[in-house]
Design a protein that fits this description.
Layout: H1 19-25, H2 27-40, E1 44-48, H3 55-60, E2 63-67, H4 76-79, H5 89-100, H6 104-108, E3 111-115, H7 119-128, E4 134-137, H8 146-167, H9 173-194, H10 206-211, H11 220-239, E5 250-255, H12 264-271, E6 275-279, H13 298-307, H14 318-330, E7 335-341, H15 345-362, E8 366-371, H16 378-391
Parallel strand pairs: 1-2, 1-3, 3-4, 5-6, 5-7, 7-8
Length: about 400
C-alpha cells in the first residue's frame, strides 16, 4: 500500500520566501558567469572530481575551485564511444563533458586535479590527460596508519607546488590560514543547512536540501544565498510549516553522491511519503562534517581533515559506520537507504558490511538501491521504496 502525503502540509512553492531555493536551482548560470569573469580578470581556475581535493589549498593559490563531477545523463552516450559502457555513470558523465566541450566550467579550467579514489576514475584520468593539464593526487587507503597519512601529506605538499608552478605565485602560511578560515565558514553554512533535517516534523525536504549544492567554492553570492535559505527555514519554524507529515518515515540516505539531475532516488522516497532527513554521502554531510583545524601547521591540518573523509575507497572504513550511527541518532532516522551507482565497486561491496551494521547494530530497516542516471527503473524503485517505508510503521 502506497503511503501518502495528505497530512497538514504546505507546498514548497507556498512556503515563506522561497527565493533562495529558486536561486540554487538555477545557480549554474551564475557560476558560469562568475568563473568567466574571474578568468578574464586573471585568476586561475582549478577543476576537481572529489571531496578529497582541498578547496582550501586552491583558494590559497588565489584560484577558483570547481567540482566537475558529471551529473547529466545526456553526456553518457558520448563517453561510451570511448569508455566501456559498464562503467560508473558519474565517470562516464564527467568524461562526456570533456568529449562534447559542453561544460564552460571545464573549458575554463587551467588545471584539473584527479584523485585516485577508484580504478575507473584513475584510468579515465589517463585518457583525459591527453587533452587536459592534470595533476594526480594519489590517495592512500589505510586511514588507521600514520605512515599512510604521511604519504598523503606529501601528496598535498606536491599539489601546493603544482599550484605555485601553474599560477606563478607563492602560497604563504598566511594565505593558507586565510583560505582555511574562508572554507570553514562555507562548511559551517553547508552543515547548518544539512542540520535542518534534525527538525521533527520536517521543515525542509531532502530534495530541497539537495538543491542547495553547488559547484564553485569561495563564491560570496552562494554564501549569501545559503544565509537566506537558513532564514527561510527559521520562518518556516515560526509559521509552523511542515515539509512532510509528522508521521512521515525519516530516511538516512547513504552511499554514492547525487547532484543536480541525479536526485531520482530522493524524489522517489519523498513521492512515496518518506522524507530524506540527511544524506551521508559526500554530496551531503560527509565533506563538511569536520572542519580544518585553524591551529598548528595549516598544510598538515588541511591534509588531515581531508584524509579523515570516510569514503568507501578506504579500508577498513570504520569511520563510515561511526558516522551512520551518529546521524541515525541525531536525525531520528527510521530507515537507511544505500545508493550505489552501477559499477561503483567500492560502495557496492561495502554495502554488505553496511547492511549488517544497520540491521544488527542500529536495528533499522535497510535497503540497497543499485541504479544509474536513467529514469527507466523509477516505477520498480517506487515499489521497493514503498515496501521499505511500510516496514517503519
Amino acid at each position: 500500500m502506497a503511503m501518502s502525503n495528505t497530512a497538514v502540509q504546505t507546498p514548497a512553492s507556498q512556503s515563506p520566501d522561497n527565493a533562495a531555493l529558486d536561486y540554487f536551482k538555477s545557480a549554474i548560470s551564475d557560476e558560469i558567469r562568475y568563473v568567466s569573469e574571474q578568468k578574464a580578470a586573471g585568476r586561475g581556475i582549478v577543476g576537481f572530481y572529489c571531496e578529497f581535493t582541498p578547496r582550501d589549498l586552491i583558494l590559497a593559490a588565489d584560484a577558483v575551485p570547481i567540482c566537475l563531477c558529471g551529473t547529466s545523463q545526456n553526456t553518457i552516450s558520448h563517453a561510451e564511444t570511448v569508455l566501456p559502457a559498464n562503467l560508473c555513470p558519474m565517470i562516464k558523465s564527467s568524461f562526456g563533458y570533456a568529449l562534447t566541450g559542453g561544460c564552460p566550467l571545464l573549458n575554463d579550467s587551467d588545471l584539473l586535479v584527479a584523485e585516485t579514489t577508484c580504478d575507473g576514475k584513475k584510468k579515465m584520468y589517463e585518457v583525459l590527460s591527453r587533452d587536459k593539464n592534470m595533476h594526480v593526487l594519489e590517495l592512500t587507503q589505510k586511514q588507521d596508519e600514520e605512515r599512510a597519512f604521511q604519504h598523503w601529506l606529501t601528496e598535498v605538499e606536491e599539489l601546493k607546488e603544482k599550484l605555485e608552478q601553474t599560477f606563478q605565485l607563492k602560497i604563504t602560511e598566511q594565505k593558507l590560514r586565510d583560505a582555511i578560515k574562508a572554507m570553514n565558514e562555507e562548511r559551517r553554512l553547508i552543515l547548518a543547512i544539512q542540520e535542518l533535517g534534525k527538525h521533527k516534523p520536517a521543515i525542509v525536504s531532502g530534495y530541497e536540501v539537495a538543491q542547495t549544492r553547488y559547484r564553485v567554492a569561495g563564491f560570496q553570492q552562494h554564501l549569501e544565498q545559503m544565509k537566506h535559505f537558513l532564514a527561510m527555514a527559521q520562518e518556516r519554524v515560526e509559521q509552523g510549516y511542515q515539509a512532510a507529515p509528522t508521521h512521515a518515515p525519516r530516511i538516512l540516505l547513504t552511499g554514492c553522491p547525487t547532484g543536480h539531475g541525479t536526485e531520482k532516488l530522493i524524489e522517489i522516497i519523498e513521492e512515496c511519503g518518506g522524507v530524506v532527513v540527511v544524506q551521508e554521502a559526500c554530496s551531503g554531510i560527509k565533506g563538511v562534517y569536520e572542519e580544518v583545524s585553524e591551529q598548528g601547521d595549516p598544510l598538515e591540518a588541511i591534509a588531515r581533515k581531508h584524509f579523515n573523509i570516510p569514503c568507501s575507497c578506504m579500508t577498513p572504513n570504520k569511520k563510515r559506520e561511526d558516522m551512520l550511527q551518529t546521524l541515525a541518532r541525531d536525525y531520528q532516522a527510521d530507515a537507511v537507504i544505500d545508493l550505489v551507482w552501477q559499477a561503483c565497486h567500492t560502495y557496492n561491496v561495502e554495502s554488505v558490511l553496511i547492511h549488517d551494521f544497520v540491521r544488527n547494530e542500529l536495528g533499522l530497516p535497510y535497503m540497497k538501491v543499485e541504479t544509474d542516471y536513467s529514469s527507466s527503473d523509477r516505477e520498480q524503485l517506487k515499489v521497493r521504496v514503498q515496501t521499505l517505508l511500510e516496514l517503519t510503521q
